[in-house]
Amino acid sequence: MFALAITFSLILEKVILISVILGGSLGIAMYSTWAERKVAAIMQDRRGPNRAGPFGLFQPLADGLKLFMKEEIIPAFSSKFLFILGPSLAMLTALMTSAVIPWGPDIKDQAGNILINLQVADINIGILFVFGVVSLGVYGIMLGAWASNNKYSLLSGLRAASQAISYELAMGISLIALVMMTGSLSLKEIVEQQHGFWDGNYFSWNVFKQPLAFIIFLVCSFAELNRAPFDLSECESELIGGYHTEFSSMKLGFYLFAEYINMFITSIILSTLFFGGYNFPFMDQVQAAVPPLLFTIIGIAVLLGKAVMFILFIMFVRWTIPRFRYDQLMNLGWKSLIPLALINMLVTGAVILGFQF
User: Fold this and answer.
1) E strands of the chain, at which residues?
2) How many domains is the chain built from?
3) How crowded is residue 50: how many other Cβ atoms within 10 Å of its Cβ?
4) Which of the residue ranges 15-29, 219-233, 235-249 has the most confident prediction, judged by mean pLDDT?
5) Would you say residue 34 lies in a domain?
6) Helix, strand, coil tally for the chain in percent (to 5)
7) CA–CA separation, 332 vs 328, rounded Å?
């Protein structure tokens, strides 16, 4: 009976944690659309959304209501099941990645006992799980593109697939160097190894230990997100709207929303792998001076703050750099990033072996 009560409380704890993470991810993604318009307006000397509510803060709600109220249209010659499955799969994979992310320090009591672990699943292959889910995400685009029975959408799906394959290779190889250095695939352990900001005689964050891996991972993240300047699958001048040309109402909304959720989760993963996650300078002194719950809240705020900075950076790049040509996209992936990632992996292995001797 006691074991049953513990199991029920654990399930309840995970259900509440999942609900908070999903709700927070959806909320941040929703207001990322507002932030994107504001960033674009500032960079183009415009005002941006300012009609729906104060400072246009109700604009995402108005957009969501508009998408819900639009007519649902499914093309007559489309594959209806796959046409609906495409945006659903894109949304599902966008949300699944958050399961292995450590969102903050464990909530502990005054005696130091862990009360709540702010990670849905602490699996020892967390990085492989992230890559597996990210690889599935492109199927949402490919299925929607193929099921539309539209030649422009089909070309967009082919572009998205080849782009994902090309840049996932460089992304994976760049992380091999990080895994060799940390000796773990668990995101929790990787964050714990970056404790604080200074360890011994050097910075503890991985961005200082693997700067080239971070740059390669960051560039590949742009390609995986289909964000400018890597948004060749949505190239309006060539493919109309790309893979979502035939979609309307909330099926279109799922595709658009999944992009912003992916941008938020990618920013969290970048912060977790390279910028210490919820760690921050002088955190041990802060932990000793404040209650455990407040320290956990500070850690969550630090992680979200780092993610917001990455989101803003991704938006700045979109409204600064023009779109690549497709041959330039492929050349960058195969002729530049993959060789650099391989060289970085070999150098990292040589340095690790050198220190062992």
Assistant:
1) 107-108, 114-116, 198-199, 202-203
2) 1
3) 15
4) 15-29
5) no
6) 70, 5, 25
7) 6
